[in-house]
């Protein structure tokens, strides 16, 4: 039984939903799991955990600056633990951009981060136009129009492959 920490950095909640599924699978395998937002993780001692997973979403082409600050502050402890990282972005809806080797946001993360995660994953996200404020709705619609994605702002479009998430969660649990 491992003492596992799952940290999420999310804008609209999809990354947290993915982390909750990973939490359930790891708990089902016998692990004790703590789920914490990036802000809550600042109050935790990483040395208390055997395994650490961080999941982070993209908004307007970037991970939140606080994610890099946290990781760079704790990279030595992170590197010493069994660990994993995943990124959630709508670009990953495209088959040619849905792996750690082909996803531009994962590549950028690995360039900018002092942490070198042992396990990596990329998950496609979700567009929930009805929940967005005017500016976000307009900008995301423009980005989707440019990238040939869904532009009907009355709809919600989920691209997450939940089976892929389950496979990742099982692999992390067994690591």
- What about the largest sheet? 5 strands, parallel
CATH fold-level label of the largest domain = Rossmann fold
CA gyration radius, whole angstroms: 16 Å
Low-confidence stretches: none
* SSE succession: EHEHEHEHEEHEH
Strand-pairing-aware structural class: alpha/beta
- Mind telling me which CATH architecture of the largest domain this is? 3-Layer(aba) Sandwich
The helix tally amounts to 6
* Helix proportion range: 40-55%
Strand neighbour order, sheet with most strands: 2-1-3-4-5
Please give a quick description of this structure.
The chain is an alpha/beta fold and 175 residues long. The chain has helices at 14-28, 38-41, 65-80, 104-112, 134-146, 162-174; strands at residues 3-9, 32-37, 51-57, 82-89, 119-124, 126-128, 156-158.
Q: How would you describe what is shown here?
A:
It is a single chain. The protein is an alpha/beta fold and 175 residues long. It folds into 2 domains: 3-125 and 160-174, 3-Layer(aba) Sandwich (Rossmann fold), CATH 3.40.50; 127-159, no CATH class. The chain contains 6 helices and 7 strands, in the order βαβαβαβαββαβα. It has a 5-stranded parallel sheet, with helices on both faces. It has a two-stranded antiparallel sheet with strand order 6-7. Helix 1 links the parallel strand 1 and strand 2. The longest helix is centred in the middle third of the chain and has 16 residues, at 65-80. It is globular, with a radius of gyration of 16 Å. It starts with a strand and ends with a helix. The mean pLDDT is 95.
């Amino acid at each position: 039984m491992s003492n596992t920490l799952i940290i999420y950095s999310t804008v609209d909640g999809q990354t947290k939903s993915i982390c909750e599924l990973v939490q359930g699978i790891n708990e089902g395998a016998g692990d004790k799991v703590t789920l914490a937002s990036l802000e809550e993780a600042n109050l935790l001692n990483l040395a208390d955990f055997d395994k650490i997973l961080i999941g982070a979403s993209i908004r307007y082409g970037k991970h939140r600056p606080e994610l890099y600050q946290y990781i760079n502050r704790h990279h030595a402890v992170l590197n010493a633990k069994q660990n994993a990282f995943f990124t959630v972005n709508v670009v990953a809806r495209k088959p040619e951009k849905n792996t750690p080797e082909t996803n531009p946001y994962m590549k950028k993360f690995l360039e900018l981060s002092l942490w070198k995660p042992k396990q990596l994953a990329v998950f496609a996200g979700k567009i929930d136009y009805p929940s967005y404020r005017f500016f976000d709705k307009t900008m995301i619609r423009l980005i989707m129009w440019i990238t040939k994605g869904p532009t009907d702002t009355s709809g919600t479009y989920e691209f997450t492959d939940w089976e892929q998430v389950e496979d990742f969660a099982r692999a992390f649990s067994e690591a």
